[in-house]
Amino acid sequence: MHYIESGAGTPLVLLHAFPVDARMWNPLRVRLEDQARVIAPDQRGLGESSLDGSSAHGLATPPEERLVAETPSVDVVAADILALLDELELPRVVLGGCSMGGYVASALLRAAPQRVAGLLLIDTKAPADTDAERAKRGDVADRAEREGTAQWLSEAMLPALLGATTRENHPEIVAAVRDLIESQPTEGVAWAQRAMAQRPDCLDTLQGFEGPAMVVVGEEDTITPTAEARRMAEALPRGELVELPGSGHLPSMEAPEALAEAVRPWLSRVDV
Ligand code: MLT
């Protein structure tokens, strides 16, 4: 599994959204470097992490231990992250995830709650997909396999991923996110869509988490809007909600300064 790491201090693992990779965290990661050891993995099949659990960079998994093209599931991705924590000898971390990364974080919390000292959920949601959402993911996965992902995927997703403020005023952020989407491997995009389609509702898991939890939402997010964030913050026994003006679904790219300002004091209170 490939990952980006920088900084020193509280171990903070950041799980990325779909269909991008660990680079989406760069603007936030550099702002937290003096406070946190930030580890941002490319999740299975995306970025530089392959679909069979190996990687051209980062940790080399011996062939006999590789998980080969598993049935798509966020549980498989969560198991990959746990294996990475073992390799890095990190028994407990602060776990953060944006959107799909939040689904994976919830899966990890379900599998190994003792590894999570604090939970940072950014623009994500708790419910499972409806049948219609599942069918749509199937269509996207099939189309990706048939046609590849160049252009149509970024054109379809950019208007939803980025808030109106970003789309109107920050062409450089739009271009950066487009580049991220268009560089994702076709098979990984299809696999991730099918993995998300299978995820269960995670509200129960959140209700059972006793540690500190911060739920962040961009006020212009239309994919996982404020109502979803509020529901998670209320379910989490120690949940607190932060709303970021001027940001859509990807505040680490759209409003990194405001996001870092919100995360810093919270992170300093988490006991790892
Ligand atoms: C994401 O940003 O990870 C996706 O939009 C989440 C989803 O498709 O549910």
UniProtKB/TrEMBL annotation:
InterPro entries listed in its UniProt record: AB_hydrolase_1 (IPR000073), AB_hydrolase_fold (IPR029058), AB_hydrolase_sf (IPR050266), Epox_hydrolase-like (IPR000639)
Record keywords: Hydrolase
Keyword Hydrolase: yes
Domain AB hydrolase-1: 12-262
A GO term for molecular function: hydrolase activity
Region of interest (Disordered), ranges: 43-65
The protein's name: Alpha/beta hydrolase
Source species taxonomy: Bacteria, Bacillati, Actinomycetota, Actinomycetes, Pseudonocardiales
